[in-house]
Amino acid sequence: MSENKVLIVDDEKAVCKVLQVQLRDAFDVVVATSGEAALEILDSDGPFFAVVSDYQMPGMDGIELLARVRDLYPDVIRVILTASTMFDAAVDAVNRNAIFRFVTKPCSGAELLPVLEAAQDQFRLEQAEKDVLNRTLQGSVNLLVDILSITHPEAFCFTSRTAKVIREMCDVTNSEQSWEIRMAALLCRLGFLSLDQDLATKLANGLQLTAAEEEILNGHPEIGGRLVGRIPRLEGVAEIISNQLMDHSDAPQFSEERWFEGVSMLQVASDFVKLSEEVSEPNALATMWEQQERYHPECLAALVESRQGKHSMEAVAIDVYQLREGMVLAENLLDRSNRLLIPKGREISQFLLERVKTYAGSSTGVMEPLYVFAPAKDEDEIKDEGEIRDEGGVDANHFVVTQ
Fold first, then answer.
1. Helix, strand and coil percent figures for the chain, each rounded to 5
2. Is CATH 1.10.3210.10 correct for 152-307?
3. Of 155, 246, 250, 294, which one's alpha carbon is 20 to 30 angstroms from that of 323?
4. Per residue in 174-219, pLDDT tens?
């Protein structure tokens, strides 16, 4: 396990061997005799809860190594071994590189043991705090998404589709901040919560907006960004959301350059989703390519590449018993009294599948047929009992979702 595995680095093989033997009853000890070798081990044999490195080594010294460890593996606790004559330099290294402890040499396993036990406790504490923060963060985001799905199901459907497109684009670009961009896509229409019911109804029905209503609508990114910005660790996500309507010819100054990439990807994905509601996917891509000066070229290229070879999902009419995990509701799921049960755009999970079965067995039942986006590979299987919806509402050429 990572929380019992420690890497000791010293250019003296004898020192490594002695410490490995003396500490083997308490920890899983791995050794390296150079900074370069240590980085290779961290990459191939990790994770480790701590790295203990000698200060003075030929080539990459201990300070440089631990600085690299901090950048590459920020969760790893870092300890430096140094001669007493290097005390001032060691203290400076601790302050500059957030090193947990420094230990003077020569150092036996017995002397290093309590330091590693303290490092292990620190590692466990930080991991527990991170787990709590991550669960709190995810819970906050899930709550916001659920509120949006209930109050503005059309906006939720749009953000769900946009997030899927973003995920596939990030797979192409290997973006370092893919989770922030995906989060921004899920929350990009959170500002719709501020819209009054009349405006929301006009949007849902595709009615013409007045100039005043357009101005109100164009303010939703700023409102959404402010809401998201109140959640710890989502400052960058908030910045992406706030600038989603940015004009590339007059781009604002971002706090970090990477948020510009996030906004650019969100613009490409959201425009693609909007266009694919009106025309087929290939035509949507062709239209965007003709207007490529409006988009970041690398992001547009990532969209095009991400769509190649994808299996489309077509709107299919099915009965409740044909519903399966992975399908996406193309229309709101209603009971027989027209009460909304699950908004369109939701992907069917095991939990939702069981929920639908419960609804179907209740006194109010479920309005059938259900209209879902089914993977193309399942279409032939469904066609025997369902039918592709070819008139009214949504059809395969009108609204396309990919796996």
1. 55, 15, 30
2. yes
3. 155
4. 877 788 898 999 999 999 999 888 888 888 777 888 999 999 999 9
